[in-house]
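Re: beginner question about structure tokens

> Can someone show what the tokenized structure looks like for a real chain? I only ever see the sequence side.

Sure, here's an example I had lying around. Input first:
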Amino acid sequence: MVQDSEDQAPSVTPSTPARTLLPSIVPAVAVGVVSALILVGVEAAAEQLQDVLWETVPDALGIGRYSVAWMFAVLVATGIAVGLVVWKVPGHAGPDPATVGLDAPVLPPLVIPGLLLANALMLAGGPSLGPENPIITTNVALAVWLGGRFIPRAPGRIWPALAEAATIGALFGTPVAAALVISEVLSRQETRGLLWDNLFAPLTAAAAGSLTVSLLDHPSFDLDLPSFGNAGWADLLAAVAVASVGALLGMGAVRAFPYVHAAFRRLRHPMLMLPAGGVVLGALAALGGHLTLFKGLDEIATLAHDPDGWSAGEFAVMTVVKLAAMVVAASCGFRGGRIFPAVFVGTALGLCAQALVPGVHPSVGVSAGVLGVLLAITRQGWISLFVAAVLVAEPGIVALLCVASLPAWLLVTGRPQMQLRKDGTSVR
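And the corresponding structure tokens:
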């Protein structure tokens, strides 16, 4: 039986005309530039305050910058300061950070000042969290608010996508990271049209955000580790082993997260939870040293500059302490993200593996460790691969990481994530 010609024709996804995509360029560029400026502004303010807290004041008092007493004092004071913001500032600095991931909720503009202030105080004071979640949330709120007023005919769903892409591009200094994250999100949604049509506006925003940050701040994630040349079987085995250990270590933190969070929730008030978190973080800093403070990017550069400067035991302590500090900081109410401290954990783990087994090349150990930990903490496959690869900036590492990601992913998929629902149970 002969079918109709329409039935015989292949199914082709329709593309979007250029005239439909062109009007999105200007709003995307505007969102990208503004999002990057907010990120740079918050980080610059936090760095200035950090210099005062950790250099100017202790030097004036004649106290060691990273003495145990001073680390305790600053971390507890940071808990008190952020607690006051969460308690008294309108909007209470947004929702519980343990319930927020990279897909930020759309919050009213009233929340923005308190959220940015809490994030800047946290970044300066030393808790082990990064700027990503609060900055993404802020930029999404601003984009939705301003976009709805200046371009009311635009679809409301476009503004969160533009803001998230712009902020991710700014955070990592390249739009590639944003494209990978967005493509992963689109794969879970029912979208119409070609992938690149759907990516056009967000990728434009991400490019504008990353270029703005590059022009103002010149970020670099390359740790300048020794080149490992052509990958061999030993490198492949090391990458698989270290990534799997990193995934298991990260899953240990994920499993502990709801219990630690519940323990702090019993204190009920931010002026109790956050200072108590500061006390615990002070104890962890005393154990792990000052390199386990802050978001971790400057600190991993210090570690990578001298991989032989610490013993395997010291690297192991820093790995565990930083992971515990991240769980505590995210559980007690500090406003921040978990990607950057997870990168420190993976870096310390990889250098620990190299110190234990000299045959493990430091570039392989670091990239594989970061990959495994990020897979467990973020459950974002593309962003984990991207960050792990960009730390080494060597083409040969990509193939090793792709193979190493397979067993690591099997260890984390289908299991609880490091994000909680409002009732305190883990998201799966």
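Each token stands for a local structural state, so reading them left to right follows the chain. Residues 165 and 182 are 7 Å apart (CA to CA).
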